[in-house]
Write a structure and sequence with these properties.
This protein is mainly alpha-helical and 452 residues long. It has one domain: Up-down Bundle (Amino acid/polyamine transporter I). It contains 19 helices and no strands. It is globular.
Length: 452
């Protein structure tokens, strides 16, 4: 019997899902990296935010057009199947379940723990931080697995909460900076000469801050009036996100000098808040930052718990009868959720060994917060191409212009990733290939006819 998920989410929750998944960690986590990559050139940093935002919005719009046509149990897999066939959709779903969802979710658990440690005075790379990260992972899993409706309400609440520090910094930071000349200083002074690849590095970093919107499509089977509400959520959510990021970044420039922000990392962001809102106020707003990161983690975990389920519901992947089961009480794919949590733990351990301590993996160390995201843009390319071929009933704007803009953005992201990460891209591709070969073996064992 085909598993059924109830229609339990509305438009507001869907918009909150897009905004809440995207906004939260990246704007805090990557702002310093973007500033460092551009040598403290604020104009170039804003350009990176704009380019990354345009790529996100164009891709989201193209997928929103697809969302009016296709829906099943996992948006991006649906679109891949409609455009490229069941075999390609299977590999996209396999990648999302095994690499994309758990890598991004695990990094978000660490980011949430990282800012918690700043408040508590713990090391951001020590055992305390990793323990807190594991605690956040398990807590987020428990909330999503036992009460998905409550998880949806938590998503809406944290989205509102996370906008508070961003809005306050955007408004008061900009006003203060214009009054005391800090904004003018930061816009006209470079700290160091940025490298020739600085803008590429900054845009790839921005891709992490912008990523997550596609995960909102994983609830389309649980979204009321999905063919109308999902496109609205994607378009509204991505526009809100880019606007908030740019305004926050400008507001931040009105508080402290770029060189202080670049040197301080998390402490630089905390100092910026304390400069405007006093020590106590700055600490309180930093608590809001932690809550915003947890909201992002919650949204990512929502997608992660449904990763293997999207394949199992099609009779594919490991033990589809087990992972396609939906709990009659919670209306959640609990077995899929447990596997998603396990994969998050594995990738969190990898992130620690590859990026936070003495290199455990040698050549095979790479940044799991960015390269899986760039891979998704590569996977979008054939989907967009075939959508242009098959969407004959659409107008020129929806069928040709926007998909072409999306394609250009995807190709740009691939080029930027190579300049930003170099040989680490090769290491990631080897791991990617191994995971895909495992997926191919499972597909062969399943003996599903798929595209035949």
């Amino acid at each position: 019997m085909e598993p059924k998920l109830e229609k339990k989410y509305g438009l507001i929750t869907a918009i909150a899902m897009v905004v809440g998944i995207v906004i939260g960690s990246g704007v805090f986590f990557k702002a310093e990296k973007i500033l460092t990559a551009t040598g403290g050139n604020l104009k170039q940093g804003i350009l990176a935010w704009v380019i990354g935002g345009i790529i996100m919005i164009s891709c989201a719009y193209t997928f929103s057009v697809m969302a009016t046509k296709y829906q099943y149990v996992n948006g991006v897999v649906d679109y891949a199947e409609a455009a490229m066939g069941k075999t390609y959709a299977y590999y996209v779903g396999w990648f999302m379940a095994i690499i994309y969802y758990p890598t991004i979710t695990s990094v978000l658990a660490w980011v949430s723990a990282r800012y918690t440690c700043v408040i508590l005075g713990f090391s951001i790379t020590g055992g305390e931080c990793m323990t807190i990260a594991c605690l956040y992972l398990v807590s987020s899993f428990t909330l999503n697995a036992l009460s998905p409706v409550l998880a949806g309400k938590f998503q809406v609440s944290t989205t509102i909460i996370k906008l508070i520090p961003l809005f306050l910094m955007a408004v008061f930071g900009t006003i203060t900076g214009l009054h005391n000349g800090m904004t003018a200083y930061n816009f006209t002074h470079e700290v160091t000469k940025s490298s020739s690849h600085g803008l590429f590095t900054a845009i790839v970093a921005a891709s992490f801050a912008y990523e997550g919107w596609i995960i909102a499509t994983s609830i389309n089977a649980e979204l009321k009036n999905a063919k109308k509400n999902l496109p609205l959520a994607l378009i509204a959510g991505t526009f809100i996100t880019m606007s908030v990021y740019i305004l926050y970044y400008i507001g931040l420039a009105g508080t402290i000098k770029n060189e202080v922000m670049m040197a301080g990392g998390e402490e630089g962001a905390r100092l910026a808040f304390q400069t405007i809102f006093s020590s106590a106020g700055g600490t309180l707003l930093f608590v809001f930052v932690i809550i915003s990161c947890l909201g992002t983690l919650n949204g990512l975990m929502l997608g992660c718990t449904r990763g293997i389920f999207s394949l199992a519901a099609r009779g594919l992947g490991p033990k589809p009868k087990i992972f396609s089961q939906v709990d009659p009480v919670t209306n959640m794919p609990v077995n899929s959720a447990i596997l998603g949590l396990f994969l998050c733990g594995v990738w969190l351990l990898y992130f620690y060994g590859a990026n936070l301590t003495t290199n455990w993996f040698g050549f095979f160390s790479f940044d799991s917060s960015e390269l899986p995201i760039v891979t998704t843009y590569a996977l979008y390319i054939p989907i967009f191409l075939m959508f242009m071929v098959k969407g004959k009933e659409l107008n020129v704007f929806n069928r040709i212009l926007m998909p072409c803009l999306s394609l250009a953005g995807c190709i740009f992201m691939i080029i930027a990733a190579w300049y930003a990460h170099g040989m680490a891209v090769v290491a990631f591709l080897i791991v990617f290939l191994i995971v895909m070969l495992m997926g191919a073996l499972l597909l062969k064992m399943s003996k599903q006819p798929l595209d035949k």
